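ok new one. same drill as before - C-alpha cells go in, u give me an amino acid for every spot. 931 of them this time. try not to just spam alanines like last time pls lmao
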C-alpha cells in the first residue's frame, strides 16, 4: 500500500492543505504543536473514520465556522489499483453528520460510512487497530522495547499482536460465567435445603382433605337458604300491602300540612303588602314638585353641556399659547448664546493667521526629520551587515585551513591502509562461512529445545500414567488401563531414553561449530575494521574536498556582498548632527503647535454654530406666528365665564330634582299592582281551607296505623336476618374452598418448581466444571500462541538486524521472560550489553520485524508504508544518523518511511522533507523542502 496524496479542509489545525507523498524516507519536521502528528491522524481518519481512535468532538477545526464541514481525501495505491477515499464530517451539540465515499480507478466502489468501512477492511485486510500497530510507531515506542521490564515488554507484544484482548476479554467473560454459576448454585442449594425441611407433599395431602369437607358443608347450607327465601317472599307481600296504605295516609297528612303552611305564609305576605301600600300612599305629595321640574330638565341639560364644550376649547387653546410663549423665550436665550460664540470665532481666526508661518515651518522640518530617520535605519542595517560579513570571512578562512590539513592527513593514512578491492573479496567469503556456521548452530540449538519440550511432555505423561496405575482411567479414551498400563509405561521410558541420547549427540557438535565460527568471526572483524577505516577515510576526503570547494564559492560571494554594502554606506545621506539640530527646532515650536491645534478644533464648530443660529431664528419667527393664530381662535370662541357660572348653577339644581324624581317614581308606579296582589292572595286562602276539610274526611275512612306496618316489617326483617346468616356461613365456606384450591395449586406448582430447580442445580454443576476446564485451556493456548509467535518474530528480527548491520548480527532470541538476546561471537547477550547505536539498531529491527510479521499475518502484499513519530528522543547527531541509516536498509519492504520530529537539524538527512509550520491566522501549513 503506497500513499500518494492527502487533502485537508477544516481538519484540526489545517484549514485548506494538500500534501504529496514520495517514495523513500520522508522527514516531517516542525515545532511541537504545529500539527505534525495530525497528518498521521488524518491518514487513519480517512481510512477508518472515528473508529481509528480520533475523538469526534475535536475533528473540525476550532477556527472554522460551525456550519463548515471537515473533509479529508486520501489517494493511495494497492495491488496495482488506484484508490481515493473521502470523508466529510461535522459535529454539533445535537447532531453528527458523517459521510464517506471510496473510488477505485476513478469508479465508485462504495458510498456511505458502513459500506466504505467494509470495503476498506477488505482492500487493506485489517481493522483499524491492527493497521495502526502495523504502520505506526509512536513516541518512545522504540526505547520502551529495550528499556521496559520483561513483564512490560510482554504486555506490549500481547497488545500489539491482539493477544491481550483474547487474554483479558475471554478470561473475564468465562470468569463472569463461572461466578454467575457459582452464585446461582449457592442460591439453589440453600433454597432446596429449606424446601426439604418444609415437607410440601404432606401439606398438599392435608389441604386436599380439608377441601373435600368444606365442599360437603357448603351443599347443606345452600339447601337451607333456598327454604328460608321462599318463606321470606310470602311475608314481604303482606308487609308491602300495609306499607302502601300507610304511605298513602302519610302523604295525605303531609298534603294538609303543606296547605296550612301555605295559608300561613300568604297571610304574612298580605300584611307586608298592606304595610308597603300605606307607606307609598304617604309620599304622593312629595312627588309633585320633582314631577313638574322634570318637564324643563332636558333643555336645561343640553344648554349646560354646549357651554361646557366651549369652556374646554377655551382652556385648551390658552394652555397651548402659554407653552408656545415659554418655548419662544427659551429659543431667544439660546440665540443670544450663539451670538456670543460667533464673536469668539472671529478672535480665534486672527490668532490663527499669526501662527500659520510657524506651523508651515514646523511641517517642513518634520518632513526632513522623517527622511533622515529612515536613512538612519538603512545606515544601521548596512553597518551591521558589513560586520557580519567580516566575521563570516574570518570563520570561512579558519574552516578552509582545517579542511586542507584534514585532506592531507587522510591521504597519507589511505596510502598505508591497503587495497579495498581485496578486502571486499575476502570479507564476502568470511561472511558466507560465518552465516553458514551460525545457521548450523541455531539449527542444533533449536533441535535441543524441541527435544527438551518433547522430554518434558513425555515425563509429564509418564508421571500421569504412574499416578493412575493399572486401575486408573486412560486420559484419552476414558477406559480402564489394565494390561495397557505396562505397555504405555515401557513405551514412554524408551522414548525418553532415545531423546536423551539424541540430545547428547547434538550437544557434542555445538562446541566444534562455535569454535570454528569464533575463528572466522575474529578474522572477519579485523578485516571489517580495516575496510571500514579505509572507506571512512575515502568518504571523509571526498566530503572535505567538496566542502572546501563550496567554501571558496561562498567566500567569493561574500566579498562581492561586502563591496556592495560599502558603496551603499557611502551613498547614504544620514547625519547624526542634523537630526539633533532638527529635534531642537521642533521642540521650540511645540507650544505654538499646541495652541494652533486647540484653535483649529474650536473653529471646526463655526459652521455648526452658524447653522444653529439660522435654525433658531426660523423657530422664533414660527413660534411668534403660532401664538398670534391661537389668540385669534380664543377671540372667535367668545367665552363668557359669568354666563357659564349661572348656567352651571341652574343645571345643578335641576339635576338634584331629577334624581329625586327617578327615586320616587318606581314606588308611585307600584300602588295599583300592590292593591290587586292583596286581593288575589285572600281568595287563594279561602280555596285552600275547603281542600283541607275534604282531605281529613278521606283519611278517617282508610283505617290504617303505624303499628300494623311495623309488625309486618319486623317479621320480614327477621326472615332476612336468618337468610343473611346462612349466606355468610356459605360465603365463609366458599372463601375457604377458594383458598384451599389456591393453596393446593400453589403447593403443586411449588413441587414442580422444586423439581425444575433440582434439574437446574445439576446442570449448573456440570456447566461450571466445563467452564473451569475451558478457562484453563485458554490460558494454556495463550502461552502456546505467545511462544509460537515469539519464535516467528525471533527469525524475522534476525533477518532485519542482519540487513541493518550488514550481516554482523543476525541471530536474535526472545526468551520466555521476554528479554531480547543478540548473538555475538557465538554467545547470546542482552541488548543492554551493546552500545547506544547498536541498541537503536536492535530496537528498529524489533519494531520493523513486528510490522513485517503483522503485514504478513494479514496477507498485506506488495509492501506498505511505515511512520515513526518522535523516535529520536535525546539522541545525539551520530545516533540519529545511525537510526536513519538503519531505516534506509528497509526501503525494499517499506517503500515509504515517514519520520516525524521536532529536531530541525535533521532536515537535510532526507530526500524529501515536509516542513510543518503555523501561519499568522493560527492555522498550519506544510511546505515541501527537498535537497
Amino acid at each position: 500500500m503506497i500513499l500518494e496524496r492527502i487533502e485537508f479542509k477544516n481538519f484540526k489545525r489545517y484549514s485548506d492543505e494538500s500534501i504529496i507523498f514520495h517514495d523513500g524516507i520522508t522527514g516531517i519536521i516542525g515545532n511541537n504543536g504545529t500539527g505534525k502528528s495530525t497528518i498521521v491522524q488524518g491518514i487513519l481518519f480517512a481510512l477508518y473514520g472515528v473508529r481509528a481512535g480520533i475523538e469526534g468532538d475535536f475533528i473540525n477545526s476550532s477556527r472554522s465556522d460551525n456550519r463548515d464541514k471537515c473533509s479529508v481525501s486520501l489517494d493511495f495505491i494497492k495491488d496495482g489499483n488506484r484508490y481515493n477515499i473521502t470523508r466529510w464530517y461535522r459535529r454539533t451539540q445535537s447532531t453528527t453528520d458523517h459521510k464517506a465515499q471510496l473510488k477505485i480507478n476513478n469508479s465508485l466502489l462504495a458510498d456511505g460510512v458502513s459500506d466504505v468501512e467494509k470495503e476498506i477492511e477488505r482492500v487493506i485486510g485489517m481493522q483499524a487497530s491492527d493497521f495502526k500497530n502495523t504502520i505506526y510507531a509512536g513516541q518512545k515506542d522504540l526505547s520502551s522495547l529495550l528499556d521496559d521490564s520483561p513483564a512490560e515488554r510482554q504486555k506490549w507484544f500481547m497488545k500489539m499482536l491482539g493477544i491481550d484482548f483474547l487474554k483479558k476479554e475471554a478470561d473475564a467473560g468465562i470468569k463472569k460465567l463461572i461466578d454467575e454459576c457459582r452464585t446461582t448454585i449457592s442460591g439453589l442449594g440453600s433454597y432446596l435445603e429449606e424446601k426439604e425441611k418444609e415437607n410440601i407433599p404432606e401439606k398438599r395431602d392435608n389441604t386436599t382433605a380439608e377441601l373435600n369437607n368444606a365442599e360437603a358443608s357448603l351443599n347443606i347450607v345452600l339447601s337451607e337458604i333456598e327454604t328460608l327465601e321462599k318463606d321470606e317472599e310470602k311475608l314481604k307481600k303482606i308487609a308491602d300491602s300495609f306499607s302502601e296504605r300507610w304511605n298513602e295516609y302519610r302523604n295525605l297528612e303531609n298534603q294538609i300540612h303543606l296547605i296550612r303552611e301555605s295559608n300561613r305564609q300568604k297571610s304574612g305576605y298580605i300584611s307586608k303588602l298592606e304595610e308597603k301600600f300605606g307607606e307609598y300612599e304617604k309620599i304622593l305629595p312629595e312627588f309633585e314638585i320633582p314631577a313638574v321640574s322634570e318637564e324643563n330638565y332636558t333643555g336645561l341639560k343640553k344648554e349646560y353641556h354646549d357651554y361646557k364644550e366651549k369652556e374646554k376649547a377655551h382652556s385648551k387653546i390658552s394652555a397651548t399659547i402659554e407653552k408656545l410663549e415659554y418655548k419662544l423665550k427659551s429659543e431667544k436665550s439660546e440665540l443670544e448664546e450663539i451670538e456670543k460664540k460667533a464673536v469668539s470665532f472671529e478672535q480665534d481666526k486672527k490668532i490663527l493667521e499669526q501662527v500659520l508661518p510657524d506651523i508651515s515651518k514646523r511641517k517642513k522640518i518634520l518632513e526632513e526629520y522623517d527622511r533622515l530617520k529612515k536613512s538612519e535605519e538603512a545606515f544601521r542595517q548596512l553597518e551591521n551587515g558589513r560586520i557580519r560579513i567580516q566575521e563570516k570571512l574570518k570563520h570561512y578562512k579558519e574552516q578552509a585551513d582545517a579542511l586542507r590539513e584534514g585532506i592531507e592527513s587522510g591521504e597519507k593514512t589511505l596510502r598505508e591502509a591497503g587495497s579495498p578491492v581485496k578486502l571486499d573479496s575476502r570479507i564476502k567469503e568470511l561472511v558466507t562461512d560465518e552465516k553458514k556456521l551460525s545457521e548450523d548452530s541455531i539449527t542444533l540449538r533449536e533441535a535441543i529445545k524441541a527435544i527438551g519440550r518433547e522430554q518434558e511432555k513425555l515425563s509429564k505423561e509418564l508421571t500421569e500414567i504412574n499416578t493412575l496405575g493399572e486401575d486408573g482411567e486412560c486420559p484419552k479414551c476414558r477406559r480402564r488401563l489394565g494390561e495397557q498400563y505396562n505397555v504405555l509405561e515401557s513405551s514412554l521410558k524408551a522414548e525418553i531414553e532415545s531423546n536423551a541420547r539424541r540430545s547428547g549427540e547434538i550437544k557434542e557438535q555445538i562446541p566444534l561449530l562455535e569454535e570454528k565460527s569464533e575463528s572466522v568471526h575474529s578474522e572477519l572483524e579485523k578485516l571489517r575494521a580495516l575496510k571500514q577505516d579505509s572507506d571512512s577515510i575515502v568518504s571523509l576526503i571526498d566530503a572535505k574536498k567538496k566542502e572546501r570547494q563550496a567554501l571558496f564559492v561562498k567566500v567569493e560571494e561574500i566579498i562581492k556582498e561586502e563591496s556592495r554594502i560599502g558603496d551603499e554606506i557611502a551613498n547614504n545621506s544620514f547625519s547624526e548632527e542634523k537630526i539633533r539640530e532638527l529635534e531642537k527646532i521642533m521642540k521650540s515650536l511645540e507650544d505654538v503647535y499646541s495652541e494652533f491645534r486647540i484653535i483649529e478644533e474650536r473653529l471646526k464648530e463655526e459652521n455648526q454654530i452658524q447653522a444653529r443660529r439660522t435654525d433658531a431664528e426660523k423657530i422664533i419667527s414660527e413660534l411668534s406666528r403660532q401664538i398670534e393664530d391661537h389668540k385669534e381662535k380664543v377671540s372667535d370662541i367668545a367665552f363668557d365665564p359669568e354666563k357659564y357660572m349661572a348656567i352651571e348653577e341652574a343645571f345643578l339644581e335641576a339635576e338634584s330634582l331629577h334624581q329625586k324624581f327617578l327615586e320616587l317614581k318606581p314606588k308611585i308606579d307600584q300602588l295599583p299592582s300592590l292593591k290587586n296582589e292583596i286581593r288575589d292572595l285572600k281568595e287563594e286562602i279561602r280555596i285552600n281551607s275547603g281542600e283541607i276539610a275534604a282531605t281529613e274526611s278521606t283519611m278517617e275512612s282508610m283505617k290504617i296505623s303505624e303499628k300494623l306496618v311495623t309488625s309486618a316489617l319486623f317479621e320480614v326483617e327477621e326472615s332476612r336476618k336468618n337468610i343473611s346468616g346462612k349466606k355468610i356461613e356459605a360465603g365463609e365456606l366458599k372463601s375457604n374452598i377458594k383458598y384451599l384450591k389456591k393453596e393446593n395449586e400453589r403447593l403443586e406448582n411449588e413441587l414442580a418448581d422444586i423439581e425444575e430447580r433440582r434439574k437446574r442445580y445439576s446442570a449448573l454443576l456440570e456447566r461450571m466444571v466445563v467452564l473451569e476446564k475451558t478457562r484453563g485451556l485458554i490460558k494454556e493456548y495463550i502461552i502456546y500462541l505467545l511462544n509460537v509467535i515469539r519464535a516467528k518474530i525471533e527469525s524475522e528480527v534476525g533477518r532485519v538486524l542482519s540487513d541493518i548491520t550488514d550481516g554482523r548480527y543476525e541471530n536474535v532470541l526472545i526468551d520466555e521472560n521476554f528479554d531480547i538476546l543478540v548473538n555475538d561471537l557465538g554467545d547470546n547477550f542482552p541488548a543492554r550489553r551493546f552500545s547506544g547505536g547498536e541498541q537503536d539498531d536492535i530496537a528498529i529491527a524489533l519494531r520493523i520485524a513486528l510490522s513485517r510479521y503483522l503485514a504478513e499475518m494479514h496477507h498485506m502484499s506488495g509492501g506498505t508504508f511505515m511512520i515513526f513519530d518522535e523516535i529520536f528522543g535525546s539522541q545525539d547527531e551520530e545516533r540519529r544518523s545511525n537510526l536513519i541509516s538503519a531505516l534506509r536498509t528497509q526501503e525494499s519492504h517499506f517503500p515509504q518511511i515517514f519520520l516525524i520530529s521536532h529536531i530541525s537539524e535533521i532536515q537535510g538527512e532526507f530526500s524529501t522533507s515536509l516542513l510543518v509550520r503555523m501561519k499568522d491566522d493560527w492555522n498550519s501549513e506544510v511546505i515541501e523542502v527537498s535537497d
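The CA atoms of residues 116 and 222 lie 81 Å apart. and btw The chain has a mean pLDDT of 79.
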